[in-house]
Amino acid sequence: xxxxxxxxxxxxxxxxVLDSHxxxxxxxxxxxxxxxxxxxxxxxxxxxxxxxxEGRLQGAELIIENRPAVARCxxxxxxxxxxxxxxxxxxxxxxSFIIISGEEVYVQSIDCEEKCPDD
Length: 119
Prior knowledge:
The protein has 2 helices and 6 strands. By secondary structure, the protein is an alpha+beta fold. The radius of gyration is 18 Å and the shape is elongated.
C-alpha cells in the first residue's frame, strides 16, 4: 500500500508549510489526485485519517479532487483527455503522444485557522 508512504510525505510537506505560518488548526486539506497516479483515493483517505489523530491536523477533512489524464499529440499538438488505451489522437489519429497531466498527486490547498497574536 504505497498510499501510506505517499500520505506520510504529503503530511510532512503540510507540516512544513504550517510551521512557516501561524496556524492553530487545519479544517480541510484539498488534494489533487491524477487518474494515472496509481493512488487509490480510498486508501489515501484511510491513511490521512489514521495519521491525523493528533496535532493541528486532528479532525481535518480530506477533500480529494480526481484529475483527468490529458495527453498531447506529438504530431499535431492536440490536447485530449485520456479515456482508454491505446491512445489515438482524435484529430489526426496519431498514436504518438506525451502525458501532460494525470500522473500527479499534490496538495492543492489547506483551509486553516490562524493563531491569535496574543497566543
